[in-house]
Amino acid sequence: MSRRNKNRSFSRDHGGGQADASNPAAFSGDEPARREPARRGRQGRRDSSIARETTRLILFGRHPVLMAIANPQRTIHRIWATENTRDEILGALADADRNDVQVDSAGRTDLDDMLPPGTVHQGMAMHCAPLPQMSVEELLEEQQDSEQATILILDQVTDPHNVGAILRSAAAFGACAVIVPDRHAPPETGVLAKSASGALETVPYIHAGNLNRTLDVLKAANFWLAAMDGEADQTLAEAKLKGRIGIVMGSEGDGLRRLTRENCDFLVKLPMTDRIESLNVSNAAAVALYELFRSKTETAN
Predict the structure, then answer these.
(1) Can you list the domains of the chain with their CATH numbers?
(2) At a CB cut-off of 8 Å and minimum separation 6, what does 181 contact?
């Protein structure tokens, strides 16, 4: 396999206090929510160097809200629902044995006023706590008996819509986590959750502090790290990666930072025609994850 080279893109060539919870209007905007020091379902030291105190988090949209109800890790404070969605919300709460959650009636105008302009809320919104933060060490402990595992590592991908879409693809194609640095990565917000279409509840979204130290930890746990590089000599399919794999992707335009790229084991690219220069990072992630999932499925059969 070809090793390190210059990274730029993913293409053939190169790229690029406290509010009144009973009043929906009191929660205006979609402020970034910070995570609690506790990790997913466990007590102990956090992996991240930045403390994330609990603040308000408003989720909206059918899939984010219903998936959050089904997630026992998600602490729910209150739900607002229109007349058309109330029965579905109550049914989901009953299925999850969460009948203690208060559901308030709200009109579409109330939800419009509560959320950022243009938000597609589909008649429901939820005030909840951010999910407990899992550490990289906890993730590796969960995966210690897995001979095959895929992790996606994002280097300074800052758009919450892109990261949410990547989480959705990670859920669809069986990735066990999405890892980002503490800085230059979006926190857990309603916008990110809406773009993830519920996947934020099923795929660990890990803020891992120093990314290069995290890559070293993954390599020590027998993960092969493949950096997506539009100028690589081989495609992802040609690399025939197997086992425990970390796909590392940089921001659009600038690509991976030099130290991040140099800390990867291989450089790979996606095959493309010359009709377009590059793919959006979330599209590139979806194609890469599909290729690994396809290869793994064919090998298993």
Answers:
(1) 24-128 (3.30.1330.30), 136-300 (3.40.1280.10)
(2) 155, 156, 207, 208, 209, 210, 211
